[in-house]
Amino acid sequence: MTSSHTTGDFEPVISKDPDEALAAVTAIYEAHIAFLQEEFKTFATGAHSRSRVRACYPYVKITTRLARRSDSRLSYGFAPRPGTYSTTLTRPDIFGAYYREQFRLLIKSHEVPIEIGVSDTPIPVHFALGDGFHLEADLSVEQLADLPDVFDVPDLDVMDDEIANSTYHVEPGADQPLSLFTAPRVDISLQRLRHYCGMPAHHFQNYVIFTNYQFYIDQFIKIAKEKEGRDGYGEFVMPEGKRLYQMPAFHLKIPGGKGITMVNIGVGPSNAKTITDHIAVMRPHAWLMLGHCAGLRNSQSLGDYVLAHGYLREDHILDEALPTSIPLPALSEIQLALEKAVAEVSGYKGYDLKKVMRTGTVATTDDRNWELRSSIKQNKRLSQSRAIAMDMESGTIAANGFRFRVPYGTLLCVSDKPLHGQLKLPGMADTFYRDRVDQHLLVGLRAMELLRDLGPEKLHSRKLRSFNEVAFQ
Fold first, then answer.
1. CATH fold group of domain 203-463
2. Which among 283, 300, 320, 377 would be 20 to 30 A from 206, CA to CA?
């Protein structure tokens, strides 16, 4: 087959102006997407010549002569050592402000221009057709079979997380990575977010709350509708229709992505990993887990709060990507915001805060019926770890926050004490939920407001950055 080409050639743009660089990214991306869309329309009508069609992502590249940074307090925005760094880019309509800020910091830190051009990484046609398109509904069986012979399709070989896992090997002479995620990896996550959450990805805000109970979502919807158009918040958007999405997302928006997204991830570490794998590409400034847990200490009461300072990770789902021997540090900015929010909402101050909140290790398990294990073996390990609570999601969410450099935190609420005879049973649990959900959610929302006021520069922690870290936040 002969190759088709995009309309118009793009010479590399070399600039010290972040706005000029972003304009070049946008022009390249939009032209290549428009080309793919037009070629696909022709293919779908059966009039295509069946020649090979290819369009590619834009790239950004920088070559540094000195390892320096303009502000040593920042955890991002600079290359760690002299060399050439690059990455591919996608969806400037979603990530435009993010890209502009990364460009600005790179230029400021290294006092050299950045280069924008057309990469050799193909754009899969699936990622070029818009949020509402479904190949299976618009093509015949024969056309679906012919599609890979005409267009590039998603290639999992370029969508792994080796950069984020700090296991990426750079071939001699190749560029060092500039970001955690390549453009194809971002694009597949944008598609998955729409699939799992029932909303196009551009609605996601930079402050994300995860929960494992619908009670919290019901209360969030109520509060969000009251806040819509008030207190600096804009519109509130939620999934439409009657379809039950696996992990529905709800967005109380502020221009610039400064609002709050809440996601019902359901129960279990698998869901927790799945959704954080994909939300991570949105580069949020913080994510929190708000949910229920089993209190492990007899001194705890139902409704007490648990602020996680450490995690006993027995969920096993991230053991290969992030071995359990690697500690997950508590992030002071998140911890202080959560503690202050509990104090404000509960009315307890200082030493009295210990009446309703305990800090310590949260154990995360992949076994919903962990209570049925041998108490002699199980209690020994839990006691050795000094764990104060057990749940099924918090350790996974914190581990993926650590892995993807997203500030993380956990505030749980004790809903049962199975080791001490208080089991989660019908009726008893319903009463607890009605009494506690409202306050717990208000604490989470207030914590996010405090973190937003702190600002991303202070929030993103150097604790989360590896030795040879990528420059993009």
1. Rossmann fold (3.40.50)
2. 320
